[in-house]
Amino acid sequence: MWNSTGCPGVYHTMLRVPLFLICSFAALAQPSPRPDPLDSVNQTFWQARNSGRFEEAAAVREQARALLARAPVNSPRFAGWVQQVAQLYQSSSLNGQARAILQEALARAGTLGDSHPSRIAMLDALGEAWRQDGNLLKAVGYLEQAAAAQAAAPAGAPPGAVAVAQPLMGRVMVSGERTVRFGTGGAVYVGSAIDAYIRLADLYQQLGRPDAVAAIAVKIRTLGSNDEAALARFYEQHGPLEEAAAIYRKVAEQSADAPAKANGWQSLANFYARQEQYPDAIAAIQQAILAAQSTDKNGMGSQVPWMRQNLAGYLHQAGQLDQADQIYQQLLQESRGGPQENQMLTMYAQYLANSQRAAQGESLLKDYLAGHPNLDPQQKTNALFQLANVVRGTGDSQRAEEYQKAAQALQPHPTPPPTGQILIAEELRKAQTAASQHRLDDAYGLALRAIDAAPQAADRQQADWLVPQIANLLAVNKEPAKAEHLFQRQFALAQNLSADNMQPLIAVTQNYARFLMNQPDRLGEVPAAIEQYRRVLAEANGPDSASLAEPLRMKLDFERSHSLWERADASARELLELQESLSGNTSDPYFGDLQTAARVYEAAGDSVRALALLRKAVTIADLLATPNNDWRRSTTRMDVAYALARLGQFDEAETLGGEAVALGRTPRPPRPSLAQQLEQIRRMKQAAATARANRVDQ
Fold first, then answer.
1. How many independent structural domains does the chain possess?
2. Separation of alpha carbons 353 and 347, rounded Å
3. Residue 654's pLDDT band (boundaries 50, 70, 90)?
4. According to the model, what pLDDT value does residue 631 have?
5. pLDDT: is 8 or 206 the higher one?
6. Mean pLDDT value of segment 526-545
7. Rounded to 10 degrees, what is the CA torsion of 389, 391, 392, 398?
8. Is 0.70 surpassed by the pTM of this model?
9. Does 84 map to a domain?
10. Domain carrying residue 522
11. Which among 122, 178, 168 has a CA at the least distance from the CA of 145?
12. Per residue in 434-455, pLDDT tens?
């Protein structure tokens, strides 16, 4: 049992909440059917936050953390308690502290043994938390430890070894050869551990480590005999694609159960469609339809119309419009007068619009509405919205807007807020409208009133989004002092809220820096504003957070737009160094920032340095490529080809441009832009040759 003495701290004067939590958690140490008292903690936290009692909400959060430190680590509910307390911090945009809670829990769970489910749960949660943050090196470190612990865990561990109320940091926890998925009420769902390895392989792919992906593939193949669907998903993501297709086909052909057979063929059809292999997708979905029509089990008969609709879509993509039309006409005939008529007809209208027959789709819907004057409001609304979509596709935005307004008029009016509830969104929208109509004093007054009401407003986050927009409109209309005052009031509001939630302060510091970047007479204040934004992010997310790259990108963008090339050079190098420390120098995030740095050097006229970075981008693109995402291999080569052409190195430029076009051709037809770019390089080469010949003649 926990020690149930009081917990002194900063908020020690708020005795009622700590005493309740102490008693509740002490009770948790004993077998009891009582509901998890952390539900009450969460309720208390949200009640305090929604009532504008921000310091009280922070106190509840801190006391919950203190009491978690007393929780019995050997309890099967330990991971759930950790998760709930960590999520209190996540909800407050205090992600650094949320990870610290997980780290503290990991240290405690380590005393239970390397392969204890609670330890594995903490490793998995930390890995996912760092992945969401963007620090991929830390993420892969924790997920590798989790995978190693899982491999060493005894097979056949009893389900429910870890019971939590919601998914840890939004993910699953895997133990041994069993993936434990957490649902509400502590329910545990067990599946294959192959999911854990697939996630690790995905992370290796993001890091540009194809060799590590290949090593993981060996483990996945070993486990895959028990989970062929997951194995097929792995092959589809990482290749070879032929293996994915073979597994989907095997499941479809060997299933004795008709619903399983139908689902197998449908999975194969979806796979082929994702690869744009439409003839194969057509053949597979036809087999799925036959299997589904052969049974009434699991409601398969009701799925047949939607399978046939998919078949029509594949036929359309394959250019077989007549056959696709026939299927849709049959579906319409069969659904006429039934509950699916409305949905089937609107889908057919969209199909007609997608096949360059928007006028026909519009007539179909208009005739349907005219012939069914007694449609219920929802069906009529659906038809009108679809009419708006079809007409908008023709470029007639005015008529599309008319149909959309008619549809919106039929929708039920929103439920009025509860008596006494404060809302500010409408006030802020009125302020926006006033500013756009040059009623600047009205806009300013409305915005100030909304900011004053925001602490108690149920929709106070609207202030984070709309006040900066109103301030920018005021500045554009020659009212910079009013705009500045709005921002300062927004800063004061965000500071007041920051005891409970850092997100408003993050938002206003970011928006203020961008606001200053658009004020020509205040450019000297921009670096300090960006630094303030960086400090707030570090406070919320920790010093190792990948979010700290964003202020550097903002700084680099500012320096580039004002031709501060020496500063931009330093910022570009700093950004690449930071990203390398977070995710290595072959990763997807590093790749993006490398291209940003190359554009900076190009804009500064340093083509040689830009070319070096562009060549490096080609190497990284090759490492990051997957069967379904290799477009960067062609675009990076074309970028290098253009850079070489600008430097007069036309032979290599033409060779690389040809490679880009060839890569863009598989498995799909080449994009026209690539061929056009190659032709442009050839014209540049010819023009240079002509210029040289003219100089010789002279």
1. 1
2. 10
3. very high
4. 86
5. 206
6. 97
7. -120
8. yes
9. no
10. 419-543
11. 122
12. 999 999 999 999 999 999 999 8
- The closest of 169, 238, 166 to 198, measured between CA atoms, is 238
Q: pLDDT higher for 77 or 651? A: 651
Rounded CA separation 82/68 (Å): 7
- Name which of 198, 287, 280, 192 is nearest 236 in CA terms: 198
HEC-encoded secondary structure of 171-218: CCEEECCEEEEECHHHCEEEEECHHHHHHHHHHHHHCCCHHHHHHHHH
Radius of gyration of the chain measured on its C-alpha atoms = 30
Residues in Cβ contact with 256 at an 8 Å cutoff, skipping those fewer than 6 apart:
none
CA distance 76 to 150: 17
Per-residue pLDDT of 556-583, as tens digits, reads 999 999 999 999 999 999 999 999 999 9
Strand spans (E) along 186-299: 188-192
- Torsion angle (degrees, nearest 10) of CA 334, 339, 344, 347: 180
Report the largest interatomic distance among the alpha carbons of the chain, rounded to a whole angstrom.
Answer: 100
Token pair in block for residue 249: 């086909």
List of residues 6+ apart from 589 with CB closer than 8 A: 134, 136, 546, 549, 579, 582, 583
Helix %, strand %, coil % of the chain (to 5): 75, 0, 25
DSSP H/E element including 684: helix 672-697
Give the pLDDT of residue 665.
67
Q: What is the DSSP letter of 455?
A: G
Provide the token pair at 578: 């930071």
CA distance linking residue 114 with residue 148, whole number of Å: 9
Residue 467 is assigned to a structural domain of this protein = yes
Q: Quickly tell me which residue has 């899982």 as its tokens.
A: 150
Instruction: Quickly list DSSP for 367-416.
Output: HHHHH-TT--HHHHHHHHHHHHHHHHTTT-HHHHHHHHHHHHHHSPPPPP
Phi-psi region of 72 (alpha: psi -120 to 50; beta: other; left: phi over 0): beta
pLDDT at 73: 92
Q: How many CA atoms lie within 13 A of 413 on its CB side?
A: 2
Closest CA to 169 of 255, 262, 99, 242: 99
Asked if residue 69 belongs to a domain, the reply is: no
Q: CA 643, CA 649: separation in Å to the nearest integer?
A: 9
Q: How confident is the model at residue 32 (pLDDT cuts 50, 70, 90)?
A: very low
Total number of residues shown for the chain? 698
* β-bridge pairing 188-192 and 178-182: antiparallel
**Residue 512 within a domain:** yes
Strands of the sheet containing 173-175, edge to edge, are: 173-175, 178-182, 188-192
Say which CATH number the domain at 440 has: 1.25.40
The predicted-structure confidence for 80-91, as pLDDT tens digits, reads as follows 889 889 999 999
CA angle 571–577–579, rounded 5-degree value:
100
Asked if 285 and 310 count as a contact pair (C-beta separation under 8 A), the reply is yes
Q: What is the pLDDT of residue 152?
A: 77
Assess whether pLDDT exceeds 80 at residue 40: no
* Residue spans of beta strands (DSSP E) within 443-553: none
State how far the alpha carbon of 324 is from the alpha carbons of 310, 313, 321, in Å.
Answer: 10, 7, 5
DSSP structure string for 618-677: HHHHHHH-BTTB-HHHHHHHHHHHHHHHHTT-HHHHHHHHHHHHHHHHSSSPPPHHHHHH
Task: Categorize the per-residue pLDDT at 414 as very low, low, confident or very high, splitting at 50, 70 and 90.
Answer: low
